[in-house]
Amino acid sequence: MDKCVGTPKPPPSLPELPEWQLRTLIRSLQVPEPGPKPGRPRTYTHTHILRIHVYRAFMGWSVERMLRELRRDPSLCRALGLPSVPSRATVSERSKHLPWQALWQRQGGEKTKRRVLALDATALPAQATDPEACWGRDSKGQWVYGYKLHLLLDLDTGEILAHKIAPTGLTSVTPANRHDGPVGWALVRGIASWEGEKPSLLLGDSAYDAEGLFQAAEEKGLLLLSGHNRRRGKPRGRRRGENLRRLQRGAYRRLYRRR
């Protein structure tokens, strides 16, 4: 504690810390680990995943940006004590087991922080002999024979918030030719309502540009920001029209690029 007389100087903000000092600080973080699991031991511990999230939070990076920087800069990987660079799927899966609810809660009854979520469909190629698979396009527009995995993600933490279709409870894996919109609607309908000072954002590409999905998100306390499907012409419906106008504003365009 500072014993000097007078008004104490405010501490420097964390982003102003020297790079080596920030890395040392993150390297010192430790969290309790679960007991050993049967079979092959875990490559990445809870501590590894937490360090990734804390470091990128200081830097203002998304999970994707953090993983790119780790691959680009091996010294950062070593500084955080990581054995290697995990995949996005590994970060998402392991993040589910960290106590995010407790970390996001504020003391004193304050409302939760605004979050940025995303609807995403990932192509899962299959063998040509699989009779239940179908031809469809992946996120880059390339044809793929297989399936799609539909997810609702938290872009800040990498946490998977929904991967089952309500009300069936079935895992959201569909043939690759299944349209993303109806599955996204079912995922949104199946989650709990969100509360906060501002509605949390839900990002999605033009496949989710549907009035019913905008309404479902609104009912859950989410503000859906989707791409505009130009093939459908001028948006019909109040919410689709409002979405198109938001996309023309700089702040929302920058947020939309986080998909």
UniProtKB/TrEMBL annotation:
Transposase IS4-like domain ranges (all copies): 112-259
Pfam families, sorted: DDE_Tnp_1 (PF01609)
Superkingdom assignment: Bacteria
Molecular function, one GO term: DNA binding
Any one GO BP annotation for this protein: DNA transposition
Protein name in the entry: Transposase
Organism: Thermus scotoductus
